[in-house]
Amino acid sequence: MTQDILARIAAVVGPQGLLTGASEMAPYLEEQRGLFHGKALAVVRPGSTEEVAAVVRLCAEQGIGIVPQGGNTGLCGGASPDTTGSEIILNVSRMNKIRAIDPVNFTMTVEAGVILQTVQDTASDADCLYPLSFGAEGSAQIGGTIATNAGGAGVLRYGNARDLVMGLEVVLPDGRIWDGLRTLRKDNTGYDLKHLFIGSEGSLGIITAAVLKLFPKPTDIQTAFCALGSLDAALALLSRARAATGDSVTTFELIPRIGLEIAVKHVHGVTDPLAERHDWYVLMELSSSRADANLQESLETLLGDAMEEGEVVDAVIASSSERQQALWRIREGIPEAQKREGGSIKHDVSVPISAVPEFIRQASLAVEAAIPGIRPVPFGHVGDGNIHFNLSQPIGADKQAYIGEWARMNRIVHDIVVGIQGSISAEHGIGQLKKNELAHYKAPLELDLMKRIKAAFDPRGLMNPGKIV
C-alpha cells in the first residue's frame, strides 16, 4: 500500500516532486532549534495548486496525515512531522511564482513558496513596501508567514501578517480548492474566511497563494540607538516619539545591557555605539514616504526633549545606511549570540504595552529565585508589547540539565504573563512546543470553539495532526 500511494503521488508531482531517501528528506525533518526530530513517509513538493489538491485527495483517500511546510524556519515545531513515519510532509517551496503586482491598488499576488525577501525586493522595485520583516526573511516563505501569523520588527506601524493579507487561495483537507484571492479592501459579505486560515499553522488547510497588502515605499528613514534613564522610560519615550513625529515610528526595540554585551562578544562586527555602559537601550526607527518629511530634525528634537526629561541619557543617530545596518546588527545579533552562550530557554510573550516594565521585573525576580545565576535576556518589540523573554543558562552550568528546566521555567513565566492579561505566544505560534501550555491557559470555551472549527474543516484530523489542538 505504501509503494502504491507513493507511485500515485509521483504520478501527480513528477520525480522531482517526491523525496523518499533518508538523506534527501533529512533537512525537512528537523526544525531549526533542534527540539523536534520527526520521520516521514515522504517529502512531497508539488509545483502547482492543482498538484497540491491532487496529493491531498490521495492522502484523504488513504487516511494519511499531511504536514504542510514552507521554509521550515518556525520555532515551535509546527512544520515538523511526528516520529511514526506515517505522515507526509507537503513542502510548497516549488510554488514560487509572483502572479501579479498592482502598484496602483497596492497589492501583490504570490504563491506560498515565494521567499519573504523576494516579496520585499519585488515590492521595492515597484516603489512599494511589503513591511513584514524578521531575521529569517531570507529563507522564510510567504505561506508559512501567513499560516503562523508572523510578526517582526514592523508590527507597531503595520501589524502582523494577518493585517497584511487581503485574500487567500487554500486547498482544503478534502482536496477542494477555495479561491479567496480578493483584492478588495471592503467586502462585507459574511464570515471573513481567510482569517480562519491565518495563524492556523496548516491545521485547517494548505495556503497555496495570497494577495498581500503593499504600502508606499519609505524615502526618509532615520534610526537611533538610545540609552534609557530607566526601564520605565521606554514607555514615555515611545509615547513621545509617536506624538512628536505624526506616528512615524516604525520600530521600537528594547535591548538590555546583557543583550548588547553578548552580541559584542559573539557576533562579528557588533560594537557598543555609546561610550558609557547603561542598563537599557532602545533601537528606534522612523520612516516616511515623504521626501520632505524632515524626520531627522524631528528625531533630534524629540531626543533632546527626552534627555531634558531624563527618559534618554545618551543616544546616537545613524548618519548613513551602513551605520543603520550596524545598529540593527546589535538587535539581530542577540538570538545568534545567545546560542553561543549555552542553553537558552525561550519565551515569546506579549503583555499590554503599559505592563511591559512590570512584567520584566516580576518575571526576572521569579526565574532568578528558581535558578540562581540564571541570566534573563528580555528584548524585542516593546512597541507592540511583544517581549522575547529568553533565559540564558548560569555561567558554567550543564547545558542539557539546564534545558531540562524548560517546562518549569515556562510555567513560572507564563503564570505571570497570563496574570497580567497577556499571551503565551505573541508571534511564533503554538505548534508542538506550546500545545500543552495552550491547553492549560486557554479558556475552556475558547478551546471548545477551536476544536469545533477543526472538526468542521478536518473531521478526520489529517491536516497537520497533533498541532495546536
Automatic annotation (TrEMBL):
Gene Ontology biological-process entries: respiratory electron transport chain
Classification via InterPro entries: FAD-bd_oxidored_4_C, FAD-bd_PCMH, FAD-bd_PCMH-like_sf, FAD-bd_PCMH_sub1, FAD-bd_PCMH_sub2, FAD-linked_Oxase-like_C, FAD-oxidored/transferase_4, Oxid_FAD_bind_N
One Gene Ontology term of the molecular function aspect: catalytic activity
Cited Pfam families: FAD-oxidase_C (PF02913), FAD_binding_4 (PF01565)
Occurrences of domain FAD-binding PCMH-type (ranges): 36-217
Domain of life: Bacteria
Known cofactor(s): FAD
Keywords (A to Z) from UniProt: FAD, Flavoprotein
Keyword Transmembrane applies: no
Similarity comment: family membership: Belongs to the FAD-binding oxidoreductase/transferase type 4 family.
Descriptive protein name: Hydroxyacid dehydrogenase
